[in-house]
Design goal:
The protein has about 650 residues and is mainly α. The protein contains 27 helices and five strands. The chain is about 65% helix and about 5% strand. It has a five-stranded mixed beta sheet with strand order 2-1-3-5-4. The two termini are about 50 Å apart.
């Protein structure tokens, strides 16, 4: 119970810090932009601030617990000063960059039926997922770089090159937020932070359909559409998996959806740039969180450019250029640090992409070809017929393994997407999110078809589907049977959501979540913390403090207190490419020594990588290496170079 309570308290503290900081910024610079988007505005501003703070500290080599606490103290003092000043006088209008408060009537409050449905959703679906996020286990990519890279930055007081780790040169904005979680507690708190991004995503989906301007639908219908859209998002296995691990795809999806909502708000009053600036901030956070985040910016251009063109015709080129600058400036502010950092360490702003133009260390055209071949091999083919059948395949045949997109979607999309396509002809509320999501999907089709990379588009598809359903139902119902229809739809969606994650029972995340919650309640906190670290790392801790390891068949180094080199991609092995030219085991040993390698860790689990024969011969030669340790299960071996 203590484990659950302390980590939930840590999460609430971080959420409070982010939201409180964002609320101060909103009051100071944006004023009453739109009461319906107030909380979303404060949250995005706070996330932007607390993404920039650790990035700036890391760039100055000042990243530490003391520096972060100092920033928190300054923020608290600024908040108190602002509070006292606001009590004395109203903020000056000169400091506001937006229009007066939106005059549209706010949406009606939630009814009892809506509250009951949302409570059931949270209690029956989200609670077991939260329990899985609270478990001390760490996922593969989190141990490879999502949490390992910020841990290394914290240990070294700022940015540093991480040899062979390609991911360390990618945009890591969300990972720098995770650094705050690592400072406050441990690796479980970043897992909960990504879970919180999932909650924020569901909230934004619900908000997006309840806060439509000049909407002919009643508030109860908008609420029903938002609830359905939440269910459509949460019904996907890939979303449920991501909510319990410290990845970044839910954060990218939240930023894309927030940018969409702010852009939609700006379309209503394009002469006021506050909402457009917020859209740019959200896009900057999105591009600064994942290498493919900029794809969402191009998808949103479908909303941006027609309004910019109208401004050009009605108010001249200065107004149009001003809008583009207001949108692009925060994107550059939040994205450019990662491009500059990559240039500083590799000479390539998008390393290892664009290797043929800019080059970069520990890479080659051969590795680029291998990586591209692997990425293009994910999915079920790249022929014209495969692209035609792709929507059906990812919905019906998705599952574990790269040959099945490494994730699963709900079968409900087979019904929802055709309804959205049919309804989008008449409804802009359906057409806009559907168009942005479709553009994102098209870009995904021609890149790596890992299903988790499609997560940012799912909330927009869900909004289009939820809205299409309620618009169709509104045309069928009469006032007398309206309540019965709502109750039927809400109940069916909740039952469908539970069934989609409850079958098969043995592998259900809901079942495993409740089991995990029971274990966390019954197990002492010290025992839970000790169970997180695999035993092999206790053996690594016994090596000399200056030991440097080469990891073979694994790149899981989060718990390692010793420096190491490891492959980023097994399918494009930098270690294999580096050591292949050496003709004898002794030459391989010499190459390892030149890079400071003193020990080799071998994972006997087979991986899709072929190491050179000379390296394998080195491990079998007692004159060159000496077995130093073995994990209790015999899976891992540690060798010492003679």
């Amino acid at each position: 119970m203590i484990w659950i309570g302390t980590h939930l308290l840590g999460l609430l503290l971080l959420i409070g810090i982010a939201y409180g900081s964002g609320e101060l910024l909103r009051r100071r610079f944006f004023g009453p932009l739109d009461t319906r988007l107030r909380h979303l505005t404060s949250l995005c501003l706070g996330l932007a601030l607390w993404t920039l703070i650790p990035v700036t500290l890391a760039a100055l080599q000042l990243l530490s617990a003391g520096a972060v606490l100092g920033c928190l103290a300054l923020g608290a003092l600024a908040g108190l000063w602002r509070l006292r000043r606001s009590q004395r006088s109203e903020p000056s209008a000169a400091h506001q960059v937006t229009a007066p408060s939106d005059t549209a009537a706010p949406s009606a409050p939630l009814g009892r039926q809506d509250i009951a449905w949302l409570a059931a959703l949270c209690g029956l679906v989200l609670a077991p997922i939260a329990a899985l996020a609270l478990a001390p286990t760490i996922s593969w990519d989190a141990a490879a770089y999502h949490l390992t890279v910020p841990r290394l930055y914290l240990e070294h007081g700022g940015f540093r090159p991480v040899e062979l780790n390609v991911y360390s040169n990618w945009p890591l904005g969300t990972e720098m937020l995770y650094a705050m979680g690592l400072l406050l507690q441990d690796h479980v708190l970043p897992k909960l932070m990504h879970f919180a991004f999932g909650l924020a995503l569901l909230y934004a989906v619900f908000l997006g359909l309840r806060s439509v301007d000049c909407d002919p639908l009643e508030a109860s219908d908008r609420t029903l559409g938002g609830a359905l859209a939440m269910a459509f998002v949460l019904a996907n296995g890939v979303v449920v998996f991501e909510m319990r691990v410290a990845y970044v795809d839910l954060a990218v999806g939240f930023y894309l959806l927030a940018a969409f909502l702010f852009l939609r708000r700006w379309q209503r009053t394009p002469q006021h740039l506050g909402a457009l600036v917020l859209a740019g901030i959200s896009c900057g956070l999105m591009a600064g969180s994942k290498l493919n985040g900029f794809v969402g910016i191009f998808a949103l251009a479908w909303l941006l450019m027609p309004t910019v063109s109208r401004l050009w015709r009605e108010r001249g080129w200065k107004a149009a250029n001003g809008a583009l600058v207001a949108f692009a400036s925060p994107i550059l502010l939040l994205w450019s640090p990662w491009l500059v950092k990559s240039i500083a360490y590799t000479g390539n702003p998008l390393y290892p992409a664009l290797y043929g133009i800019f080059g970069g260390p520990d890479w080659s055209p051969q590795l680029a070809t291998q990586l591209s071949t692997w990425q293009q091999g994910i999915g079920m083919g790249r022929q014209p017929l495969d692209y035609l059948l792709l929507p059906w395949r990812i919905i019906v045949h998705g599952g574990s393994g790269y040959e099945r997109f490494d994730g699963s979607l709900s079968l409900v999309w087979l019904l929802i997407l055709p309804l959205a396509l049919w309804r989008c002809r008449r409804s802009a509320v359906v057409r806009q999110p559907l168009a942005v999501a479709t553009l994102f999907f098209v870009s995904w089709v021609f890149t790596s078809q890992q299903l988790r990379l499609l997560i940012p588009a799912l909330p927009l598809f869900a909004m289009a589907g939820g809205r299409a359903v309620v618009e169709i139902l509104a045309g069928w119902r009469t006032a007398a049977d309206r309540r019965g229809w709502r109750r039927l739809i809400l109940t069916a969606s909740l039952v469908g959501l539970l069934v989609s994650h409850g079958v098969p029972l043995a592998k259900s995340p809901l079942t495993s979540g409740w089991k995990a919650a029971r274990r966390l309640l019954e197990t002492p906190s010290a025992t839970i913390a000790a169970s997180a670290e695999p035993p092999i790392f206790a053996l690594i801790d016994r090596l000399p403090a200056d030991a440097r390891l080469l990891l073979l068949n694994t790149n899981q180094g989060f718990f390692s207190r010793r420096e190491y080199l490891a492959d980023s991609f097994f399918e494009a092995s930098q270690i294999s490419h580096w050591l292949t030219p050496f003709a004898t085991p002794r030459e391989v040993r010499g190459a390892l020594r030149q890079r400071g390698i003193s020990h080799i860790l071998l994972d006997r689990q087979p991986r899709p990588v072929t190491y050179p024969a000379t390296l394998l011969s080195l491990l079998r030669d007692p004159n060159l290496v000496h077995p130093a340790a073995q994990s209790p299960d015999g899976r891992f071996l540690i060798f010492t170079l003679q």
